[in-house]
Amino acid sequence: MKNVSFGAAFLAELDAETPATRKCLERISESLYSWKPHEKSMGMGYLALIVAEIPKWITTMIESSEIDFATYQHFNLSTSAALVAHFEENIRGARKALQQVTDEQLAALFHLKNQGQVLFSSPVKDNIGSSINHMVHHRGQLTVYMRLNDIPVPSIYGPSADDKGF
């Protein structure tokens, strides 16, 4: 049995989650970006943006080992098509970074900061898996928002009530 690198394993996991994530993002209309199920909830547009940007986090972790909330540049949310294109760009970047990542880069510390102050540090490897899980978590939230707005929920790990096929 061949030994699979962590980069390859993370890439396979990201590739497995990408099609369903894309299907969800494609169905979110910009007319619903400000909708939220509760006053304490985030708006649907911001939630979709988080889902679309998480793959960029992976690239940033590998290439620069830090994200600072104060300087991180979010995509300017405009149209649904632009959001999906942003997601695709971020997936391409994450795929390339994961294909090229070395064990040394995975072992290096990633630092999450706010205005230069370190909030936490841990190995890049730990944060990549956590980021993929974070994307899946927020995609799950997004499917609830979709259901509450009568947007057909695509099949994700199997058929949905709206999409009986794969």
Fold blueprint:
Elements: H1 6-26, H2 44-64, E1 66-68, H3 80-100, H4 103-107, E2 109-114, E3 117-123, H5 124-148
Parallel strand pairs: 1-2
Antiparallel strand pairs: 2-3
Helix pairs in contact: 1-3, 1-5, 2-3, 2-5
Structure commentary:
It holds the Pfam family DinB. Belongs to the DinB family. Keywords: Metal-binding. It is a single chain. With 166 residues, the chain is mainly α. It has a single domain, classed as Four Helix Bundle (Hemerythrin (Met), subunit A). The chain has five helices and three strands, in the order ααβααββα. The protein has a three-stranded mixed beta sheet. Strand 2 and strand 3 form a beta hairpin. The longest helix has 25 residues.
CATH topology: Four Helix Bundle (Hemerythrin (Met), subunit A)
From the helix content, strand content and strand pairing, which structural class follows?
mainly alpha
Strand order of the largest sheet: 1-2-3
The helicity comes to 55-70%
The 3D shape can be described as: globular
Characterize the largest beta sheet: strand count, sense, and whether it forms a barrel: 3 strands, mixed
Tag the structure with descriptive keywords.
Four Helix Bundle (Hemerythrin (Met), subunit A); mainly alpha; three-stranded mixed sheet; 166 residues
